[in-house]
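Database export, one record per block. Field names are fixed; values are copied verbatim from the stored entry.
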Amino acid sequence: MATGADGNRYELASEKGHFVLLFFGYTHCPDVCPATLADWARARRALGNKADAVRFVFVSVDPERDTPAVALAYARQFDSTFVGIAPAVTELEVIKKGWGIAAFKEPTGTEGGYGIAHPAQAFLLDRQGRVTLVYPPGTKVDDLVADLKQLL
């Protein structure tokens, strides 16, 4: 999928055997990205000792500003176990096509400033790597925790 901050390649396939919550966003996002990752951190704490069966993966869709180290630091500010990756432009294009998602720059009105239009939903992959559930933005933490506890 992409090279991580440690220089090693990160592949979702390496997570087989775990549930994976996957979110496409960017570190300069003013709203849905930090809200989603903050909710994930609360959900992880609520799962207690079952939390290790779930991987929480943030994928940046802003290759101009987000390096692998920046994406990892961003994800880890919410929880030290979160994975943050930042694919290169060519990798991101392959990911977007493979997932059937769009992500593109939008001007913000400040000179040279931009935001990124990106999917706001989170994807839950089962232990075989198949998309099992899609969570809309604003999903309640209690609902996410209930789903994960039932699946685990």
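Remark 1: The chain has a mean pLDDT of 93.
Remark 2: The longest strand covers residues 19-25.
End of record.
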